[in-house]
What does this fold into?
Amino acid sequence: MSKNKPLVEMIDIHKWFGRVYALQGVDFTVNHAEVVGLVGDNGAGKSTLMKILSGLYPPDKGEIYFDGKKVKFSSPKDAMNLGIETIYQDIAIAPLMNITRNVFMGRELERKIGPISFLDLRRMERESLNALRNLGLEIEDMKMPVENLSGGQRQGVVIARAMYFKSKLLILDEPTNNLSVKESLRVLEFIRELKNQNISSVFITHNLHHVYPVADKIVVLSHGKKVGEFRKEETSIEHITHLITLG
Amino acid sequence: MTLNARKLTIALLQRKEISITIISLITISFFYSLQPKFLSPANVDVLLKITPELGIPALGVTLLMIAGEFDLSVGSVFAFTSLFTTLLLEMGVNPWLSVLLALGACSLIGLSHGLITVKTGIPSFITTLGGLLVWRGVALVITGGLPKFFAMPTEFTNIMAGKITTFLHAQMLWFFGIAIIFLLILERHKFGNWIYSTGGKKDAARAMGINTDKVKIICFILSSFTAGLGGIIQSARLNQALPNQGEGLEFDAIAAAVIGGTSLFGGAGTIIGTIIGEYLSRIIENGLIIIRAPSYYFRLYIGIVVIIAVIINLYIQRRAIRIRG
Ligand SMILES: Nc1ncnc2c1ncn2[C@@H]1O[C@H](COP(=O)(O)OP(=O)(O)OP(=O)(O)O)[C@@H](O)[C@H]1O
Ligand SMILES: [Mg+2]
It folds into this structure.
């Protein structure tokens, strides 16, 4: 890992969905310990760009470099193995499952009894509890179905999961959607905490008042093209709003 | 009630198995009060003997339902597997091998249901409804619609459905053996976590790297396999393979699972719940016979119990959420 190279470089990414030209040659960079705000109108291509970065779709054209190395993902698992974790719009958890089982979904801790591997539920519970505490989330009962948590707490569980698995990049697709003001502020706190722990993040949202305070850099997409990329100091909410609405 | 006592009550009731056990006990007392013969050793023994062959398919159906899919074909696969065995027997195949081949064939049926559902995106309700018609049809073609002698060696029928002592039959060991394996898979193995995630939120599971298609296909196979095994056990008990055996089993199995707390939408359910749900169904069926109610009452009562169970589950869930707040 070299500190001067960017963490992620996506170069000239194109994506078609049938006749919809969703991404038309987008360059996108994330540096180490950087919070990137990704904004743009509905259908601009934000989610598609991030789904490509998380291995859910292959790009039709374009290259991706991670930590300076060229990568090709054939599934989300490939991206996850490199440390790219994604929180999609409200789909990152199974509400009826308990907290522990959600935290370790797909990456269960195991313990051998004879020739068979069983879940190491005790360790899983302890580790989830610690992960939530590290994030400042005070929930004691790890057996509680996630359904019983508030929206902000749920996002907390997912973010704690990303931290626990030592992700290098966390993609958050509208994590503050449907959250109250207070809960949204909490999620913003979580994102700041990620940066403190040297984890970069991409934060997609329609709410510029959410992204502006936490982002280091803001990227604007419009109709599948990048129409702006600014360090936060160089721009203002009014300026970005103007860009989004005019394209 | 103090808040703590209420929380405890809710926590207890939230174990859906407990509310359904209470309903079972009430049902038992009801039938007993009308007809004491209901709890006679002979009748209890009958109940214990016939429940496993119908309960085993319900276990497979439970896994599949937790993974978010339905299997309407289990009744037909139940019959098909037994009849296919007799067909092989008639062709002179070794009896033990015949059963293995038949169970292999029914697993392939499950595989085909799974592949069609997952690869085409057709709802499993439809693909397995097709299965229900096709495999019953094949079973009828095999037999020409007539019962067949299930000509297996006595050692085999003893292993599948022999009497061990009073109140203990070989089929109960199969039932509980498979139940324990499935329970361990669900609660103590990562594959169980994958099943719950796949049914609870497929997109999340996928995003976490779980191959949800594979999980579903395996559950389809298990559902068909347990259906076939149930059919073999019934045939071993009756020494016959019947073209109409297992008719209506698809709904009985779903009913047992749902009564036991399995969600119709996937993502939730337990093996213990299904076992209790299965026994409750059989108790109602048997009780109605004992009190000499016309046989068609069975479906009516099961229907009512299913609806009550679903309502109780929803109510408990809402209460639990409200208490938290
Ligand atoms: N799986 C898909 N199949 C077909 N078209 C798609 C698919 N996913 C996205 N699109 C199309 O690609 C374009 C970009 O969609 P995308 O979801 O990336 O937008 P977005 O910027 O995330 O929008 P929003 O803010 O509404 O979430 C849209 O025109 C959308 O309809
Ligand atoms: Mg989007």
In short: Residues A 17, 20, 22, 40, 42-48 surround adenosine-5'-triphosphate (ligand 1) (CB under 6 Å).
